[in-house]
User: Fold these one by one.
Assistant:
Number 1:
Amino acid sequence: MSTQPQSQAQPPTSPVRQRSKPWKKVGYRGFSAFLASDNDFLIFRRFGSVNARLLLYLQDGIAVLESKLEDLEDLHAQDSAVDIYNRLFYWEALPARTRLLEQLNVKVRQYSESSTLQ
């Protein structure tokens, strides 16, 4: 009696097939070779709906970070704020802005790369 679940059970084999087991040689290797044999066979699913959801997810994350960056810069641009030279990045006096920019850099790159795949 087999202890493997039905979905993982090996295909039934006849005495002749048990010796050569051609089903072991097909799999993704054989399927890949077939797909690559002609451009007309080379078709892949694009997962359009899932890609759209992921892009919307990234857009939302970018918009949240963008809003935080705008709020932070508005706060430091007020006359009553501590005087910080707000035009240079090589001497960043606002570590919170640096963190937001680093997070935005990652998310915007992900978004740009993902949106070009469409």
Number 2:
Amino acid sequence: MSPRDISGESCWELIHPSLTLVFISQGDYHIKFHLRNKNDGFQWNLIAVYGAAQDEHKQSFLTEMVQYFQNESLPFPYGGDFNIIRGPNEKNNDRYDDRWPSLFNAVINSLDLRELELSGHKFTWANSLPQPTFERLDRVLVSTEWEFKFPLATIQALPREITSDHTPLLLSFGDRRGASQPIFRFELGWLTRDDFREVVERSWTSVCEGNMAIDLWQNKIRRLRQFLRGWAKNKSGHYRKEKKELISKLDMLDKKAENQTLNQWEVDLKQTLKSRLIQLLREEEIKWYQRGKTTKLLFGDMNTKYFQLIANGKHRKTRIFQLEDDGKIIKGDEQLKKYITDYYRGLFGPSDISPLTMDESRREDIPGDR
């Protein structure tokens, strides 16, 4: 989807074929659409915003923003022209007044919204003066639930049309379809499993093929990597099921405790269920801590959501939108993948003629034990 400036107002154009969109309502400063993903039925709202340009109306705009999201139950992105910057770094000169940015940031923080990082441009608006003022007035804010559903979502600035003073923004969901198989990742959380050592030992001792030590080692590592990939996928399914069952049983006991005193067996069962749930949540927390590559808040309360948001942000920052080679622009996932693969294959691939040979029978120049 991309917001475009038409007759001084911010509007949105739906260009994603896998969504069903229905107009719901509008306020003084926003238009709301209800969307449903055709592939999995996931429902969310899209709110296109056009903030007040005049200072005397900005208070009303922020008030509407707070009142709307206090009653919003579905995940959402909230984007368009806010007509407010968030800090002095979003303007190219020192004519800065902190009044509205301060209130705007306070509203964003109070509503627990996250801003998707912009790529392609630093600013999104410019006037037509000989020495123009540049500001970042356009942005996309999302709820944490929506970001969990679309962790690879990104915002890219498109070329500005000659008739508009705003830069269009392209919101990409970061579709995983067609992506190559991810590299193997050893999860630190696996070490919390009681049976993990035995699982590794069984896999490691089951491979005895290889004429040389290095061949045997490589075969063992290859087999262990393949085994752990499938083992982790299987365990992940069991983990989700067990977590759901534990939460359901604890909820039943809590509801029962609201009306009558639990007997000793039920009290002990509740503690056992809670201990197991904490163990599962701890493994999940370590997983996202590892991917987030941050040491903040590692110990103490469960911080899984925090680490997951950090990991999502880092993942988005590493995304490549386009490359340039001798004036030619390479765009699109498939074209980028092919170009990068061919480039490094040519850089590190084997040469047609190699002056090197290997002679395993020669050992006289190998130092002996002293």
